[in-house]
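thread: overnight batch results

M.L. [08:02]
morning all. the overnight job finished for the chain we discussed friday. pasting input first so we're all looking at the same thing
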Amino acid sequence: MQTLKDKTMAKKFLIVDERAVARHVIRKAAATPHDTVLECVTADEAHRAVGVFQPDCVLMGVTLPAPNTLKVIKSIRKTYPDVRVVAVSTFDETESRRAAVEAGASAYVTTENLSELFLLAAPERLSASTGRQKKSRHTRS
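M.L. [08:03]
and the structure it wrote out:
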């Protein structure tokens, strides 16, 4: 059985936020020491990086400047449908959550609930540690 400490469970994350402190907090919440993490400041950088870096998951702040986050989520999901995109926000607003999921985000998490980010970013980690997979209320069906 694989455990969370196994290097075979290592993931590649692309973290996108204009604020360095936010990127740091997201990294600490989602990544293990075995994971590879690339950080981007803008949505444009992120879109280009997805094709080159080929992450397992993009963790994207929802308040990025133009082009707006929702357009980039749509574009990433259209071009790279297997890449999981998790929208990260300071605010738990129903409209923002709905818009992010409709744009193609696999999940929406607030900074208040960052402890969930570890599993939302890579849900197979739960099944590796417990033998089953949990469905979060923040993920789309």
